[in-house]
Amino acid sequence: MTQNIIGTSNPEAQFLHLSKLNWQWNKIQKEEFQSRIDKACKLMKQHDMKAVYLHAGTNLYYFTGMKWGSSERMVGALLTADGDLHFIAPQFEYGTVREYMLIEGQMHCWQEHESPYELFATILKVEDIDESKIGLDESCPFFITDGLTQSNPLVNFCNAKAITAGCRMYKSANEISIMQTAMDMTMEVQKSAARILRTGISVREMTAFIDEAHKACGAASGSYFCIVLFGVDSSFPHGVRQPHDLQENDVVLIDTGCQLNGYISDITRSYVYGAISDDVRSIWNIEKSLQLKAFSAAQIGLPCSGIDHSVRALLSSNGLGPDYQIPGTPHRTGHGIGLDIHEWPYIVNNEDTLLATGMTFSIEPMICVPDQYGIRLEDHVYITEDGPQWFTNPAKSIDEPFG
Prior knowledge:
The chain has helices at residues 11-19, 30-46, 58-64, 94-100, 116-126, 142-151, 161-168, 173-195, 203-217, 278-297, 304-317; strands at residues 51-55, 76-80, 85-90, 106-110, 133-136, 156-159, 223-230, 250-260, 263-264, 267-273, 334-336, 343-347, 360-363, 367-369, 373-375, 379-384, 387-390. By secondary structure, the chain is an alpha+beta fold. It folds into 2 domains: 30-168, Creatinase/prolidase N-terminal domain (Creatine Amidinohydrolase, Chain A, domain 1, 3-Layer(aba) Sandwich); 170-390, Creatine Amidinohydrolase, CATH 3.90.230. The strands form 5 sheets. It has a 6-stranded mixed beta sheet with strand order 4-3-2-1-5-6, with helices on both faces. Strands 7, 8, 9 and 10 form a 4-stranded antiparallel beta sheet that branches. A 3-stranded antiparallel beta sheet has the order 13-16-17. The mean pLDDT is 97.
């Protein structure tokens, strides 16, 4: 039997432990980026789009391998249905863009006093698609969408989600392998975080430790995010302005993750530092039953909404809710994950997307008891041909949250 590890160690010992772990993963190769472009082109033809604009960010990276952050300047790529790739960037960034380019494409640059939207219009005209249906990356800032619309009045702009999500929502074996390693890293960090708890430790000290612990595991940028909540603070899903230090018998909620080759992990554990009341134990056990119910409902061909419906039905049968009311589960059951921490598919009761092989998402139907505590158990699943599989095993019990 695994013993309760809470409060049994110190940061130095845990950093040493984590640094000795050996993690291996494969990077996404150029051939896979090209296969994504090929799939996007097929989807464009199915949806009668002549091209899609991919703005700086995760969509641009997913299809072209180019890592570039969004800013006040237009940087992105136009991908045509025939597979032609046109990069658009400020002239002074030409050399850097060329350096970051993995999939070759034509470069189109604009000077600071010129309009990138008119440059975009010129590209469409040369490609003879200036009066066609063009998809826009759904993450485009409004100023980009507005500028393109104003400079291209004959273009039928639409949401490119059918193309972007139509590709990104279905993860490859390589993507799942990277995500698996990231999840495994974060699970080890979660265990180490539990080990260093002590009365009076602050949220700031815990978040700093978790950040360095992720680095010790090999996640170079540390924690991608971190939520640490003690006691009554845990009843607020995403935290409070002035968090409390840890006290004896507090509920502990830690939600954190890291980024590996662009892919993100995200795991939450809830347990108690000290004596466990009957009420907290009961709610914790209901939370675990909700998580397992959602897992069993995640079957190929069924809508994502069915997972959320099954959770809320079980919640109501336990006298909680109903629907999104509290005491109960005030937010969706889960969210997709990949290059973005929240992406498709969303596990909520108005999402009709059908579950299919390659989808990855969280199961985290948190139970909030107002002004007392909250219990969130979050693990992620990936859908195989045989149904759902856990990236990380769910918590065993409130006494052995990592058993």
